[in-house]
Q: What sequence folds into this?
Protein backbone atom coordinates (compact mmCIF):
# COMPACT_ATOMS: atom_id res chain seq x y z
CA UNK A 1 0.00 0.00 0.00
CA UNK A 2 1.48 3.32 -1.06
CA UNK A 3 0.71 6.24 1.25
CA UNK A 4 -0.15 9.77 0.26
CA UNK A 5 -0.77 13.13 1.91
CA UNK A 6 -4.42 12.32 2.73
CA UNK A 7 -3.23 9.24 4.65
CA UNK A 8 -0.93 11.42 6.72
CA UNK A 9 -3.72 13.81 7.66
CA UNK A 10 -6.09 10.90 8.39
CA UNK A 11 -3.47 9.30 10.63
CA UNK A 12 -2.95 12.56 12.48
CA UNK A 13 -6.70 12.83 13.12
CA UNK A 14 -6.96 9.20 14.25
CA UNK A 15 -4.05 9.48 16.67
CA UNK A 16 -5.67 12.53 18.28
CA UNK A 17 -9.08 10.82 18.59
CA UNK A 18 -9.54 9.02 21.94
CA UNK A 19 -11.61 6.05 20.66
CA UNK A 20 -9.83 5.49 17.33
CA UNK A 21 -9.46 2.08 15.70
CA UNK A 22 -5.98 0.78 16.57
CA UNK A 23 -5.86 -1.52 13.53
CA UNK A 24 -6.45 1.38 11.14
CA UNK A 25 -3.73 3.41 12.87
CA UNK A 26 -1.33 0.46 12.57
CA UNK A 27 -2.08 0.01 8.84
CA UNK A 28 -1.61 3.72 8.11
CA UNK A 29 1.66 3.85 10.03
CA UNK A 30 2.93 0.83 8.12
CA UNK A 31 1.95 2.47 4.82
CA UNK A 32 3.59 5.77 5.72
CA UNK A 33 6.80 4.57 7.34
CA UNK A 34 7.17 0.96 6.26
CA UNK A 35 9.85 -0.18 3.86
CA UNK A 36 8.99 0.06 0.21
CA UNK A 37 11.31 -1.14 -2.51
CA UNK A 38 9.42 0.86 -5.14
CA UNK A 39 10.57 4.20 -3.79
CA UNK A 40 14.07 5.56 -4.35
CA UNK A 41 16.32 6.00 -1.34
CA UNK A 42 15.86 9.20 0.60
CA UNK A 43 19.48 10.35 0.50
CA UNK A 44 18.68 14.00 -0.07
CA UNK A 45 19.42 15.06 3.51
CA UNK A 46 22.90 16.31 2.64
CA UNK A 47 22.04 18.01 -0.64
CA UNK A 48 18.61 19.63 -0.24
CA UNK A 49 18.59 23.42 0.23
CA UNK A 50 16.38 24.95 2.94
CA UNK A 51 14.94 28.47 3.30
CA UNK A 52 13.69 30.03 6.55
CA UNK A 53 11.36 33.04 6.25
CA UNK A 54 10.85 35.09 9.40
CA UNK A 55 7.73 37.16 10.18
CA UNK A 56 9.71 40.41 9.81
CA UNK A 57 10.62 39.48 6.21
CA UNK A 58 14.17 38.28 6.88
CA UNK A 59 15.18 35.23 4.85
CA UNK A 60 17.96 32.76 5.65
CA UNK A 61 18.99 30.05 3.21
CA UNK A 62 21.16 27.01 3.83
CA UNK A 63 22.61 24.71 1.21
CA UNK A 64 21.83 21.47 3.08
CA UNK A 65 19.24 20.18 5.52
CA UNK A 66 22.02 19.10 7.84
CA UNK A 67 23.40 22.64 8.03
CA UNK A 68 19.88 24.04 8.51
CA UNK A 69 19.11 21.60 11.33
CA UNK A 70 22.39 22.41 13.09
CA UNK A 71 21.82 26.17 12.86
CA UNK A 72 18.15 26.04 13.84
CA UNK A 73 18.66 23.58 16.69
CA UNK A 74 15.93 21.29 15.34
CA UNK A 75 16.12 17.86 13.75
CA UNK A 76 15.41 16.93 10.13
CA UNK A 77 11.99 15.44 10.87
CA UNK A 78 10.78 18.60 12.62
CA UNK A 79 11.87 20.69 9.64
CA UNK A 80 10.18 18.26 7.21
CA UNK A 81 6.93 18.34 9.17
CA UNK A 82 6.91 22.14 9.50
CA UNK A 83 7.48 22.43 5.74
CA UNK A 84 4.84 19.85 4.86
CA UNK A 85 2.15 21.32 7.13
CA UNK A 86 3.24 24.92 6.41
CA UNK A 87 3.33 25.91 10.07
CA UNK A 88 5.87 28.22 11.73
CA UNK A 89 8.49 26.76 14.04
CA UNK A 90 7.67 26.93 17.74
CA UNK A 91 11.08 26.12 19.24
CA UNK A 92 14.73 26.40 18.42
CA UNK A 93 16.90 29.27 17.27
CA UNK A 94 14.53 30.16 14.42
CA UNK A 95 11.22 30.14 16.34
CA UNK A 96 8.44 31.83 14.38
CA UNK A 97 10.03 31.21 10.98
CA UNK A 98 8.38 29.18 8.24
CA UNK A 99 10.41 26.48 6.53
CA UNK A 100 10.69 25.69 2.82
CA UNK A 101 12.62 22.66 1.63
CA UNK A 102 13.40 23.85 -1.86
CA UNK A 103 13.76 20.69 -3.96
CA UNK A 104 11.56 17.88 -2.72
A:
Amino acid sequence: MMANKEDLYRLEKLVNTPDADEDEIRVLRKALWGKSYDRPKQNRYNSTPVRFTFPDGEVKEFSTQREASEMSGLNKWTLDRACRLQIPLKKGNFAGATVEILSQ
Q: What stands out?
A: Strands lie at 50-53, 59-62, 98-101. The chain has a mean pLDDT of 80. The helical segments are 5-15, 22-33, 65-72, 76-85. The first strand starts at residue 50 and ends at 53.
